[in-house]
């Protein structure tokens, strides 16, 4: 799998993600369910050019949702909490155009 297939999206707009980013220099990503910790580490280092000290993963169970009169379950997904090396950071809110 390529790094773009392993890292699905960053999770940045939650209170816990913001607290971890500011306090512990950790970033949370949604990743492919089949990805291992080593693959996630290599993908983050390749895509964002930062050093990674540790990777913690967890499977998040899908929730029951109402759809009209019926019920449906959202898919299970995998979350990775990546600890960055001291001094490294990933800025998701920077302006890509540089203006």
Task: Give a verbal description of the structure.
With 99 residues, the protein is of the alpha+beta class. It has one domain: RRM (RNA recognition motif) domain (Alpha-Beta Plaits). It is built from three helices and six strands, in the order αβαβαββββ. The strands form two sheets. Strands 1-2-6-3 form a four-stranded antiparallel sheet. The longest helix is centred in the middle third of the chain and has 12 residues, at 37-48.
* The CATH fourth-level homologous superfamily: RRM (RNA recognition motif) domain
| CATH architectural arrangement | 2-Layer Sandwich
Percent helix among the residues?
Answer: 25-40%
* Low-pLDDT segments: none
Report the C-alpha radius of gyration, rounded.
Answer: 15 Å
Tell me, briefly, the overall form: globular
What can be said about this structure in brief?
The chain is built from three helices and six strands; from the N terminus they run αβαβαββββ. With 99 residues, the chain is α+β, with helices and mostly antiparallel strands.
List the helices and strands and how they pair.
Layout (H helix, E strand, L loop, with lengths): L2 H4 E4 L4 H9 L2 E6 L5 H12 L3 E9 L3 E4 L2 E4 L3 E8 L15
Antiparallel strand pairs: 1-2, 2-6, 3-6, 4-5
